[in-house]
Specification:
217 residues, single chain, mainly alpha, globular
Length: 217
């Protein structure tokens, strides 16, 4: 609670420059989950002079700068070293080596849509810039498309914090943040459980069952 209060006090004091710096650092040193930081920005933004879209734009600029650091670092050190570095970052971000390999292959084949979608998946969104740089996705392809995904992600969570704080002006900001974060964590657990059940069902009723049905018919 105290750490959230301190974070929002710092953001409120530094305004747009603080938003840009916080979202840049979140990419480089991912200590807090991004949705915690972004919702805290939204709650703090109620006290800013700038409109909500300007706050979101500052956050997008910071996130893109952070992406640029990993993208150009990976593109400059060569594919072999970039792959090793990417695997380390993937482990820190909770991304499995198998998922990382699939992402490398997919980025070579479908860079534009993956540049957008990878910014909407926790964990992958931190690894994706380095992957794009390592496999040689052109900067003029990667950055405009990744900016779309970043904008959607940042807008969603900043707006959630902003409107929650506006609807409850008398409630302590950290309490609002904890409630909203709890709701999103609950949604994330439910989605994860549904995904796991779907994967189990597919494994149990996969191609073998379809072949069996074809033989019976």
């Amino acid at each position: 609670m105290e750490s959230l209060t301190s974070l929002m006090s710092m953001l409120a004091a530094s305004s747009l420059l603080g938003v840009l710096a916080a979202t840049l650092l979140e990419r480089l040193v991912p200590i807090l989950p991004s949705y915690v930081l972004l919702m805290s920005i939204g709650i703090a933004a109620v006290g800013f002079d700038a409109p909500l879209l300007t706050v979101v734009s500052a956050s997008v600029a910071g996130s893109i700068l952070g992406c640029g650091v990993y993208y150009y670092a990976a593109s400059s050190i060569g594919p072999v070293r970039a792959r090793r570095w990417g695997n380390r970052l993937a482990r820190l971000s909770g991304v499995s080596p198998r998922r990382m390999r699939r992402m490398l292959i997919a980025f070579r084949r479908d860079a534009p849509p993956l540049s957008v979608l990878s910014q909407l998946v926790p964990g992958l969104r931190l690894v994706a810039p380095g992957v794009a740089g390592a496999v040689g996705v052109p900067a003029l392809t990667y950055f405009p498309f990744s900016a779309i995904g970043i904008a959607v992600w940042n807008l969603f969570f900043i707006a959630a914090g902003y409107f929650a704080a506006q609807r409850n002006p008398q409630t302590e900001a950290a309490s609002i943040a904890l409630v909203v974060i709890g709701l999103f964590l609950g949604i994330e657990v439910i989605v994860g459980a549904l995904w796991w059940l779907r994967r189990r069902y597919q494994r149990a009723h996969g191609p073998a069952s379809f072949r069996a049905k074809a033989i019976v018919q």
